[in-house]
């Protein structure tokens, strides 16, 4: 595989060169002890999770057919309070266990096993890092994930197995303490970033090497992490396209290509290829088998299976077709929850909020602002940072660099 490198006149100060062999040599040196990672949608592209933004085949494009006020409403906390069905429909198909970790995820585990991984910052909510065997204490999920869940009202945690039961049987989970709706710990519009993420940002000062993979570096404050490492810390971008300011420092390396392909080439240079493949083979059993899926509870009523498929159906990922079918089958296992929503991002109207509600961050009010700095809701980045396969969900968040700085 050939790579394109950003040309600089000045010589690297820490690395011997700006190529993959120089990177491998540095990783094996005594000077590289703390590797920090920044992960985006591109690391999970080959896992097969449907794209959110692609025309016609993207989830947002097709969710618009499901009588939502707008596609992004599925990830708005105010909408979820009134109608949790669309999100639970989506969660049923995207729930952890249905997708296998990628080669890149196994590389992250390998770094941990080599005692090189300091912190893994990820924007993705799929928990594939955990399923690949990366230690929990090394993972910082900047935009939350399916790893836990709690009541949106009293914030009480909810049992993992019970949540899984509800999602797989297509029923809405309700809090056993106050009766409020339960959702996974994914950052929605109108919610704050996890405190764990804010507290972990100073970890970047300890980095000997920063590897940025599969991200467009346009989602803030996550993208700002790339500037927080020391000037002497080598930065590596593994991505389909050159993004951000990577290449502006003397010890920056830009390796353009699919994440899995670049990672495999790097492991060949490191002499870790066999170990990488061994770890990835171990993830094969992490996927829910067809037999296991068949044993899951089924809805009491189902729509007849269509006898023919349109050309658009053929283009869609199977998961997307399943989501659309299941949306009409989903059972709402609860009465409507009393409305306690904050400022509505669609209409701008405000409703009365109970005093025990936690203050929220207002979503961006215009589509222009959303492109540069949006409130928090799971999305993918532009396809330029990913392969042609369907990308993993990635969360866009409101730009809060100033507030993040104030907390450090």
Automatic annotation (TrEMBL):
Its cofactor is Zn(2+). Residues 13-273 form the Deacetylase sirtuin-type domain. It catalyses: N(6)-acetyl-L-lysyl-[protein] + NAD(+) + H2O = 2''-O-acetyl-ADP-D-ribose + nicotinamide + L-lysyl-[protein]. Residues 284-408 are annotated as: Disordered. Pfam families: SIR2 (PF02146). Binds 1 zinc ion per subunit. It comes from the Eukaryota. Residues 298-311, 380-393 have a biased composition (Low complexity). It is found in: Mitochondrion. The keyword NAD applies. One of its GO terms (cellular component) is nucleus. The active site is at residue 143. It is an enzyme of class 2 (transferase). Belongs to the sirtuin family. Class I subfamily. This is NAD-dependent protein deacetylase. The lineage of its organism: Eukaryota, Fungi, Dikarya, Basidiomycota, Agaricomycotina.
